[in-house]
């Protein structure tokens, strides 16, 4: 027979209400009483009916997280940090991988996934702001990333333009004048790639270095495409003395291609990336990159979402937060 809350109450010598308060983390309970209840729960093997508790309280102590691709190192590391930040506040995180499909992104805003969570951390890549607003419902939601910049939504993001400009200035200060950019299209100005390209162009303009569209190599943000983009530049005869991969995996793929072709890094071509994933530190040579404040992004997005859930943040307009960044200068572009 299943152990009940009444069994726990009798074993601990407390009321049923006290057991309920302990299970729901009610703060005004004497530590000794709380310990007795927890000991009884452990001894009897009581398992709370979370579904029933959530129906009674309207809270699940679960947060939803929608990311496009958990195989991407940045997203994997961010998800880990978000889970740890949520756990420090007594929350768990359910993760949905969207694969940048509109149906999955929109589906996460409604239905079971949304019902099982008290709030949502959302990184949309396909759907637009109006489509999200039409389906968002009343539960709190915090956007991550740069795809949606809309005053209706809370947003935690990074200083893409400023950080890209800082990295480009570092390459320029090292004497590099022909800096190839891998991972953008020449005309982009919005979204993550566009903002980072804007920062690159701004730094060139400040230094009086002309922008050359031939140095912009489009590529999906993967290692193999970073390698292929650099191979294309080399085979086209375009001269360059540095590569700025708009994320670290692009830069690592580019650096691999340079090295196997006998191009010395950084002597012949400096290489830099963006994101400071763990792999960047252990590459050979180690990768110069931008650390975009991933810990701060995790802490502030969880904090903002929980403030909305608890009613501590009452602004009707979306709160927009930009995390700080740090330039990590390593062997690939000293």
UniProtKB/TrEMBL annotation:
Ribonucleoprotein listed as a keyword: no
Domain of life from the UniProt record: Bacteria
InterPro entries: HTH_LacI, LacI/GalR-like_sensor, Lambda_DNA-bd_dom_sf, Peripla_BP_I
UniProt GO molecular function: DNA binding
Keywords, sorted A to Z: DNA-binding, Transcription, Transcription regulation
Listed Gene3D superfamilies: 3.40.50.2300, lambda repressor-like DNA-binding domains
Record-annotated HTH lacI-type domain positions: 3-57
Name under which the protein is recorded: LacI family DNA-binding transcriptional regulator
């Amino acid at each position: 027979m299943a152990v009940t809350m009444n069994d726990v109450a009798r074993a601990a010598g407390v009321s049923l209400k006290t057991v309920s308060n302990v299970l729901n983390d009610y703060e005004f309970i004497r530590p000794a009483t709380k310990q007795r209840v927890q000991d009884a729960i452990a001894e009897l093997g009581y398992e709370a009916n979370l579904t029933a508790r959530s129906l009674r309280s309207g809270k699940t102590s679960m947060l939803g997280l929608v990311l496009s691709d958990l195989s991407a190192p940045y997203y994997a590391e961010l998800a880990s940090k978000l889970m740890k930040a949520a756990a420090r506040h007594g929350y768990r995180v359910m993760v949905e991988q969207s694969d940048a499909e509109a149906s999955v992104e929109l589906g996460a805003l409604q239905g079971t996934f949304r019902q099982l969570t008290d709030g949502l951390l959302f990184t949309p890549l396909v759907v637009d702001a109006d489509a999200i607003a039409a389906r968002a419902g009343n539960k709190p939601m915090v956007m991550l990333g740069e795809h949606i910049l809309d005053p209706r939504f809370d947003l935690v993001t990074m200083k893409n333009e400023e950080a890209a400009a800082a990295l480009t200035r570092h390459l320029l200060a090292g004497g590099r004048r022909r800096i190839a950019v891998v991972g953008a299209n020449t005309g982009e100005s919005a979204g993550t790639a566009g903002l980072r390209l804007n920062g690159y162009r701004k730094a060139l303009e400040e230094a009086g270095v002309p922008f050359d569209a031939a140095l912009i190599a489009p590529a999906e943000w993967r290692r193999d495409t970073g390698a292929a983009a650099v191979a294309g530049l080399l085979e086209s005869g375009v001269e360059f003395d540095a590569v700025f991969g708009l994320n670290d995996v692009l830069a690592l793929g580019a650096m691999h291609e340079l090295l196997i072709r006998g191009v010395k890094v950084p002597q012949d071509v400096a290489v830099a990336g963006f994101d400071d994933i763990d792999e960047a530190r252990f590459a050979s040579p180690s990768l110069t990159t931008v650390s975009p404040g991933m810990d701060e992004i995790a802490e502030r997005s969880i904090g903002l979402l929980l403030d909305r859930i608890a009613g501590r943040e009452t602004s009707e307009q979306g709160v927009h937060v930009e995390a700080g960044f740090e330039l990590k200068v390593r062997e690939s572009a000293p």
